[in-house]
Design goal:
This protein has 41 helices and no strands. The protein is an all-alpha fold. It has 4 domains: about 180 residues, Growth Hormone, Chain: A (Up-down Bundle), CATH 1.20.1250; about 220 residues, Growth Hormone, Chain: A, CATH 1.20.1250; about 180 residues, Growth Hormone, Chain: A (Up-down Bundle), CATH 1.20.1250.20; about 220 residues, MFS general substrate transporter like domains (Growth Hormone, Chain: A), CATH 1.20.1250.20. Helix 3 packs antiparallel against helix 4, helix 3 runs antiparallel to helix 6 and helix 35 runs parallel beside helix 37. It is globular. The termini are far apart. Belongs to the major facilitator superfamily. Sugar transporter (TC 2.A.1.1) family. Keywords: Membrane, Transmembrane, Transmembrane helix, Transport.
Length: about 900
């Protein structure tokens, strides 16, 4: 009976493969009746992927609550409804809705079916039975291509192809009645009797040892499920599975299957086989054969050897394709080399890298939270799928781009090196034994800060949204001006409302995060980012666009300081500087993403709307990712929620949580005693104890703006034209180059800041920046081309010095400088004043360029940097390696006549 159950559950793989095959490749030549073009393919693929991501994230938790069998049965309704709606869609909007519903089913079945198969399979055959799911995926893809051939010449043939998904959905809905519930799930629900009965029904000779061991395993409270997923043992398995899916998607499989066959089309036409359609069909058929080989070998050879062999073949295949692409211009039959590499790639992928991530995920996820953990892993698969697909579009435009293929090959080689070391062999092991392996491996790790890096990475994703929002303003302004014929005043308003909103949000950040908590404020701002993105994309008039961009500015103003506070309060002192640098890196990535999106969409009708709307995607991901974060333990302790603070510290520090809590609560008692006689609100900021810290923070924010950085941020193209680079394309290319310099130097800063220290970096950086500005000022007296590029080089060094020092260190100082009693309002005040400084700068800089001119302006900013460096040499304490409590105690000691010995600060 076991084989029958596996076959029924694997029909979910058939639906998975068919629906993604239809969305991805089979309809690439279809013309949609309401447009007369193939643009609907983008709706098919995008909507299906988005629905699959949501379905996967929700499906695992539901499978933990109601069972694997019920989720499999429920998805059949989604597949049937979505297929019918898509097939009869009278418009693109209805098609989008239908594919979203199908995507929900694909995502949920991709979680529930592998879980179910792994939990009913015996250890000795689990690999091959799980590979049947992958086999059915490949058969589904093949069916989609065959269907495309059958209906290719029929009017509205794509409707029949979409309706074809109803057949396997109805088949699964009927056969699913035969399914029994997973014995592992029943054992996890402490229903030992039912688990044993089901196991005997599946196979009378089955051993009940595993389900009895699971039933005896102590069950934690449901509120700690997420903590268990990201425990040291849990995250080891989860991250390994996510890594497998990352390599699976980023070796270029989407480029080959979704948008492939340019070289194969030439080959097939030369053989009189017909070209592109037959080429895609041959790849799908090869995928089925490779999956059959995987079914036969995986439990004999083992997961790890088969994976390494597969990665080797994938890398060689990609390298061969790169060689063929390189020869394409000079060798008439180079397409044969590319085709050979492509077939080797697909065969190697199908034997190992295709099925093994699904096998490993279903086997390795933590035992007591299998559904939740599986949803995170499979959700990452769909996220990677959606990110990797644009690479396929690039390869479709210019197939055989050697650089892209070499990059894919490099990912395969990197995967080989990583998994050769990290991938355990699970062949023949029970689920309990696999879970025990990761638990024992975690027990051997004495110190791990991965959870701090993960929490920081999630919290600082807001920096990516900020960088994108600022950079996309410059990119879209030209397009909006052309579309709406904006005057100079309207352009100025549109550029400045983001900064105005940022200023308002910055002043609100402290009170809001102190009142409602850091995490909840960040989550609400993610929603505001989504709203502002759609508001700008759909704005019917200039006024609505201004409102939407103001809302985006408010979201930035609240998110940036709140994320900094959160990271400072969860980070260990030894790596706090490094973690606080993450937001600057994310900012640089966001800016580069904006430039790339702009380049990709600049020629599209009303492309600026899509550029604005694109921000909703990372914003929504950010909001969902924030659900995994614990609240700041220091904020919880300050709010009197000590038990919640301890739970948060357990997730962050593990066994050291009680010691951390003791340090926090000792300081809290001192602060509570002092606060009884202290004034409240912002008045407290100007008490003698806190005033020096406030002044230092405001000075740092003033220098970030008036050292000349905002000149680059807002006026880089203008500066380059003043220098003499009047060609717009050259100017924008140079601006993008400065963005790359900023990102690279920010990453370097991240690696050295906790070794060098904050104070020396910011002081030296200010002197170097001043020197760059003085060199630029001196070169303005020359008109030669050498002098112009000398100024560009000086500007690049200026940007690099800022990113390496003040750009990163300034934000870090603001996040860690202030005592806990005033941290929220003080950080809010500092960021708010930075926005005010930025507004003043943007208003005065054009006037200064007009009179007294660029030379004097550069000298003035250099003088400000020098004076600021001298002031910070005296006033800025070194916070490297100090806990937040020690930094707060330093400011306390300045009020006292006694120099503290226990808190030495330089």
């Amino acid at each position: 009976m076991r084989n029958v159950l596996v076959g029924i559950a694997s029909l979910g793989g058939l639906l998975f493969g068919y629906e993604t095959g239809v969305a991805a490749g089979a309809l690439q030549n279809a013309e949609f009746s309401w447009t007369g073009t193939s643009d609907g393919q983008l709706l098919l693929s995008t909507a299906t992927l988005l629905g699959a991501l949501v379905g996967a994230l929700a499906g695992g938790r539901i499978a933990d609550v109601v069972g694997r069998r019920d989720v499999i049965m429920a998805t059949t309704a989604l597949f049937t409804l979505g297929a019918f709606v898509s097939a009869i869609a009278p418009s693109s909007l209805v098609l989008l809705a239908g594919r979203l519903v199908v995507g929900l089913g694909v995502g949920a079945i991709s979680v529930a079916a592998p879980l179910y198969i792994a939990e009913i399979a015996p250890a000795r055959r689990r690999g091959s039975l799980l590979c049947v799911f992958q086999l059915m995926i490949t058969i589904g893809i093949l069916a989609a291509y065959v269907g495309n051939e059958v209906f290719a010449d029929r009017p509205d043939g794509w409707r029949y192809l979409l309706a074809g998904g109803v057949i396997p959905a109805l088949l699964l809905s009927g056969l699913a009645l035969v399914l029994v519930e997973s014995p592992v799930w029943l054992a996890l629900k402490e229903d030992r009797q039912s688990a044993v009965a089901v196991l005997k029904r599946i196979d009378a000779d089955s051993s009940t040892e595993e389900v009895e061991a699971i039933a005896r395993t102590p069950r934690e409270d449901r509120g700690d499920d997420l903590a268990e997923v990201f425990s040291l043992a849990g995250r080891g398995a989860v991250l390994l599975a996510i890594g497998l899916f990352f390599v699976q998607q980023f070796v270029g499989i989407n480029a080959m299957i979704y948008y492939s066959t340019s070289s194969l089309a030439v080959l097939y036409e030369s053989l009189h086989f017909g070209g592109q359609d037959w080429a895609g069909l041959s790849l799908a058929a090869l995928g089925v054969l490779a999956a059959l080989v995987a079914v036969a070998l995986i439990d004999r050879v083992g997961r790890r050897p088969l994976l390494l062999l597969s990665l080797t073949g994938v890398a060689v295949g990609l390298a061969t394709m790169a060689v063929g692409a390189g020869l394409n211009a000079s060798f008439t039959h180079a397409y044969v080399v590319s085709a050979a590499g492509l077939y080797l790639f697909v065969a190697s992928f199908g034997v190992g890298l295709g099925p093994i991530p699904w096998v490993a995920a279903a086997e390795m996820v933590p035992l007591r939270v299998r559904g939740l953990a599986m949803s995170i892993v499979v959700g990452s698969h769909w996220l990677f799928d959606s990110l990797a697909s644009p690479a396929g579009l690039l390869l479709r435009r210019e197939f055989g781009g050697p650089l892209l293929l070499v990059l894919f090959s490099g990912v395969a080689l990197l995967g080989w090196l990583v998994f050769r070391r990290a991938m355990p062999e699970t062949n023949g092991l029970s689920l309990v034994a696999i879970d025990r392996h990761f638990t024992e491996r975690a027990a051997r790790i004495t110190d791990s800060r991965l959870v701090h890096y993960m929490a920081t990475g999630v919290a600082t994703m807001g920096g990516l949204l900020t960088g994108y929002s600022f950079a996309i303003t410059a990119v879209t302004l030209v397009l909006i001006e052309e579309d709406w014929r904006l005057g100079p005043l309207q352009q100025g308003i549109l550029a400045s409302v983001l900064v105005a909103g940022l200023a308002a949000g910055s002043f609100l950040a402290g009170p809001l995060s102190d009142r409602f908590g850091r995490r909840y404020v960040l989550m609400s701002m993610a929603a505001l980012f989504v709203t502002s993105a759609f508001g700008a994309a759909l704005a019917p008039s200039f006024g609505w666009l201004v409102i939407a961009r103001t809302a985006a500015g408010i979201a930035i103003g609240i998110t940036s300081p709140t994320a900094g506070l959160y990271v400072a309060e969860v980070a260990p002192a030894a790596i706090r500087g490094r973690l606080l640098s993450f937001e600057a890196v994310a900012y640089g990535l966001g800016a580069i993403l904006a430039y790339c999106v702009g380049l990709g969409l600049e020629d599209q009708p009303a492309g600026w709307r899509t550029m604005f709307g694109f921000l909703a995607v990372p914003s929504a991901i950010y909001g969902v990712a924030l659900l995994t974060l614990p609240e700041s333990p220091r904020w919880l302790a300050a709010a009197g929620q000590l038990s919640a603070a301890r739970r948060s510290l357990v997730r962050l520090y593990g066994p050291a949580a009680d010691a951390e809590l003791a340090a926090i609560t000792d300081l809290k008692r001192v602060r509570d005693a002092e606060s009884k006689s202290a004034p409240g609100g912002r008045v407290r900021l100007w008490q003698p104890t806190y005033r020096p810290a406030i002044l230092v923070g405001l000075a740092v924010m003033f220098l970030i703006v008036f050292s000349g950085w905002d000149m680059v941020l807002f006026y880089a193209p203008t500066i380059l034209k003043e220098i003499g680079l009047n060609d717009t394309t050259v100017s924008f290319a140079a601006t993008l180059g400065l963005g790359v310099v900023f990102l690279v130097m920010t990453v370097i800063s991240l690696t050295i800041i906790d070794r060098v220290g904050r104070k020396p970096m910011v002081v030296v950086g200010l002197f170097v920046m001043a020197a760059c500005l003085l060199v630029m000022a001196g070169l303005t007296t020359f008109t030669s081309g050498v002098a112009q590029w000398g100024q560009v080089a000086s500007l690049a060094v200026f940007v690099g010095a800022f990113a390496l020092t003040l750009g990163v260190v300034g934000e870090i100082v603001i996040s860690e400088l202030y005592p806990q009693a005033i941290r929220g309002p003080a950080a809010s005040l500092s960021h708010g004043m930075r926005s005010v400084f930025a507004i003043v700068f943007t208003l005065t800089f054009p006037l200064l360029l007009d009179f007294p001119g660029l030379t004097v302006t550069l000298v003035a900013y250099a003088a400000i940097s020098i004076v600021g460096a001298l002031y910070l040499m005296r006033a800025l304490p070194e916070t490297k390696g100090r806990s937040l409590e020690e930094i707060g105690a330093y400011w306390e000691s300045r009020r006292s006549a006694v120099t503290p010995v226990e808190v030495p600060m330089s």
